[in-house]
Amino acid sequence: MSTQHRDYPATGAWHLGDPVGTRRFFSLPTERAVALDVGSTLTDVTVAYETWGTLAADASNAILLCHAWTGDSHAAGPADDGHPTPGWWEGLIGPGLAIDTNQFFVVCANVLGGCQGSTGPASAHPADGKPYGSRFPVITIRDIVRAQARLADHLGVRTWHSVIGGSMGGMQVLEWAVMFPDRVRSIIPIATCLQASAQQIAWGAIGRRAIRLDPRWRGGDYYDAAPGDGPWEGLAIARMVAQVTFRSDNVFSEKFGRELADGNADKSGIEMWDRFEVERYLDHHGDKLVRRFDTNSYLVIGKAMDLHDIGRGRGGVVAAVQRITVPVLSVGIWSDILYPSYQQREIARLVVEAGGHADYVEIDSPHGHDSFLIELDQVGRAVTSLLGKV
Amino acid sequence: MSTQHRDYPATGAWHLGDPVGTRRFFSLPTERAVALDVGSTLTDVTVAYETWGTLAADASNAILLCHAWTGDSHAAGPADDGHPTPGWWEGLIGPGLAIDTNQFFVVCANVLGGCQGSTGPASAHPADGKPYGSRFPVITIRDIVRAQARLADHLGVRTWHSVIGGSMGGMQVLEWAVMFPDRVRSIIPIATCLQASAQQIAWGAIGRRAIRLDPRWRGGDYYDAAPGDGPWEGLAIARMVAQVTFRSDNVFSEKFGRELADGNADKSGIEMWDRFEVERYLDHHGDKLVRRFDTNSYLVIGKAMDLHDIGRGRGGVVAAVQRITVPVLSVGIWSDILYPSYQQREIARLVVEAGGHADYVEIDSPHGHDSFLIELDQVGRAVTSLLGKV
Predict the structure, then answer these.
(1) CA distance A89 to chain B (A)
(2) What is the CATH code of the structural domain delimited by A201-303?
């Protein structure tokens, strides 16, 4: 049937490598194991990160950027051997840009559970040196933030000037303000939510099931598979779900319409597996992802997003929001079908109702959820409007 | 991993049975093979149908109901051995009801390609008596409508008083008015579209890929599999995609919130495969579907929906709409994320712009696409408003 992914790496591609380019690695001391929120603990945890600009002597100019699901520490800069993709906010970060590295010291870390240098399911288990695979525990956004806090200690950053991120990055931003209210001076959560909704969980669950259905996933222990024998089909289907929810109906219609990529509906002979252009596009994105991302990391991070709830164990969302005492700029996107803008309006509304300071800004774009990675002018204006105020 | 579907039927459950209850079968004469739109031809075609009420002597009181993706001919009546589910419009059809069987002769046929009595992939291939399986051709909505036209001939119905249906049923409704303008006196397309959009195709494609990924699908030739060894996982995932798009964000949030069905996020030990309530709900619907529906029929009908385009081969949608000369009541649902209401407004708008007669009515419901199966009072009022006018 489907052999299109046969020349992809089966194993090893995401194992912790040497520092490359601007990427650095911070290893938590073994005696300071990361206690996990809903699982066990992790020891020998490494966090991969990159920085731009120079930390001021008083460490007052540090900004933390938090990446989304399949992102990594490479927020800016070209693609190269160590970074399979260009910076996900390339054009927004640099000297004289919206996040001005002449002024700020900017940090971005690959999340715990990831596959671009930080400890994740493809990393070596300390007990036997073999990949964690199915042994990697469930983690939460709070676990990710705790690891970032360790990194901040390591870098000498007591308080972030701002913590900024979209989508899952925005979940981390919110947890930073709730977990460490004295370690942030402002936050900019973008296209995100206070807690994952049932529909968001449902989308995540579909991708999860598709991966589980892939016989090459092997219960999560596929790292010794022969080249090309990894769970790419399942991951590609999971990515298809995400990719549709990341975009919008009208942009899909404008971009792809009903064009066929294979076969021809006007002639006889169209077959079940002949594709429309939109399917080719989704295949292309699935292909791109499986070349650079580990399937188990996709599962682990997706589960962390489903478990995201700033109210959990804190008496609910309203009580948790009361801990947010710094200025908040909540950014929404009107065409976002995955994180509808009512969620970002709610962040601002609840902060204000709790006596805090919050503004809401909406990105005017038809591109759906992904607009926070596309509409850099609007994102930049929003970011600078808050950074200038703090 | 996942053995939850092990006691489902693997084979035979959807083969053509004897007439049961009110269900009747019409077999097209072999010499009148159904020429297919984009494939080959089908011979020995059977159409399963049910009727309610009595055909008038002048055959002027016949209404055709067209069912949706996983529907069947059982539009009204209780579940029984021949009908695994109660009528999909139970409560709307009967003496004194909105579709009044004291007045009208009501017909509903299982679509070509289906699995509830009409010829589909699980039916016997005339060449060898074995199930078609992978040999079943791609069909289109037009093929489905042509088979219904043969049934109308057989029943002595020259002209339908009205043709009515939602979702894929609405696609058939529109094709009836375009293909056979002199055989309909009115149409009521509900929650449907003139052509499948790129986003709709994308959702369909995801389900298709999940089925293909299921090793038990066996390329479509799974009918001789051992009991419990059918492609239920793939079909269940495909159904999950559909079920999320059939409903709405706010109703999911109200109904399920973030409740866990398994595990407990406040205690340690939540696992990757512990489910939220919304996942249990989706599992439940997947389970229900695989017990009554053939996976290959799901693929064939889904492909027909993706190929739906009333403009194909007719000079485009606007030119095709000019053939619609009868009164049209287009019904939309404001909360529908799968067939957004702009599509139903467009049907009415284009008909009027072409000089025809069309009204648009919107169902006020938060329940999303499925509202046409839920909000029977509103659907009934809309239907009677047009039936009374014709």
Answers:
(1) 27
(2) 1.10.1740.110
